[in-house]
Write a structure and sequence with these properties.
The chain is α/β, with parallel strands linked by helices and 353 residues long. Helix content is 29%, strand content 26%. The protein folds into 2 domains: 10-268, Spore Coat Polysaccharide Biosynthesis Protein SpsA, Chain A; 273-344, no CATH class. It has 12 helices and 15 strands. The longest helix is centred in the middle third of the chain and has 18 residues, at 126-143. The protein is globular, with a radius of gyration of 21 Å.
Amino acid sequence: MNAGEAEPEVWAVVLAGGIGSRFWPASTPDRPKQLLPLGSARPLIRDTVDRILPLVPADRLRILTGERLRGPLLGVLPELDEEHLWIEPRAAGTGPALLWAAVRIARQSPGAVMVSLHADAAVDDDDAFRDDISRAVCLASEQGRLMTVGVVPDRPEVGYGYIRTGAPLDDLGGLAVDAFVEKPDLGTAERYLSSGGYLWNSGIFVWRVADLIEEVRARSPELARLLPLAEAGDAAGFFGGADPISIDEGVLERSGRVGVIPARFGWDDVGSWEALFRTRDADADGNVLSGRAVGVESSGCALYAEQGAVVAFDVDDLIVVRTGEVTLVTRRERAADLKSLLRDLPDDLRPQS
C-alpha cells in the first residue's frame, strides 16, 4: 500500500459446492471431494481454511455451499458456525455465487477486498500463497484491478484453462491479462509451456467488491439483471433466476481490468485420482498409499482404503479405492474418465444427487 493509505478490509469466500465425481466411490453428494484427505492427511477444505486464516480473520471468512453440506462442513470446521456459511438454494456456477457474495460483503463493508478460493485445491507452500494473495490485494486496492493468481506450468496440462499474460502492472511481478484461453489440446499445451507467456488459471480471484459489481453492470447483462434481487437479499429469487455461468465467462473474459500474479507456490486442482501422485508422498516404488494399504512387488499404484485394507501384489499403474460398500479398480490412464463410468453403472451403484 502507498504511505498514508488505510489497509483494505479483506474478506475470504471459499467455494465449497460440487460433488467431485472423478473421486468416486470415495466422493459422494453427501461427502464430496473437498471433505476428503486428498492433498494431505486432512480434508481439502480444512487445509484451505487454515491456509487463508492467518491473512483473513475468521469473522470475515465465508463458505459458499449447498444446504446438503451444511452439517458435514461444520463437522470438519468446528471453529466456524452457521453465520460463516452462505447457503446457495440452487447451484448456478461461480458467476452468480461470487456476485452474491460480493453484494453481501459490500452491504457490510463497501470498500472491502474479496479473496475467492476453491475448497478443493492443493497448495505446497502456504507462506508463499499468502504472500501472493497479499500482492494481489494491493493491486486490486490500488489499481482497481480484478486480480487472479496464475500458476506457472510445469507440464503441458490439457485439463486446465490458461491465461495469456500481458504488460507489467507494477515492480512486484503483477501482469495484465491479455486473454483467458480454454483447455487446449496437447500440441497447444506444449506450445504454451515452451513460450513462457501462459499461466494456468487457478480460479483464485481477488478484487474490491465494488469493482466486481461495477464490471458486472458494465459487462455482464446475464448477471446484472440479478443485482436487484441480490441487493434485496432474495436468495431464492436470485439463484432460482440465475443462468449457470462461470465468473470467467460472465465477467473476466469481457473486462479490460484483469490482472494476474504469477504464483510462487505449487498448485494442483486435484481433479482426479491421478492427482494423488502429485499431492501425496510416494514410497520407494512410486506407490501412493492411504489408509491400510500395502503394495508388494508393485509400482506406480494409488491404493486408498477407507475401510478394511487394500493389498496390491505384482501389479503396476493401478488405482484401487476401497470404501465401505464399493471397491474401484482402474488403470491410472483412465483416472480422469470416471464420469463416463458412472453413466454406465446400474442405478444402485451410481451416486444419487
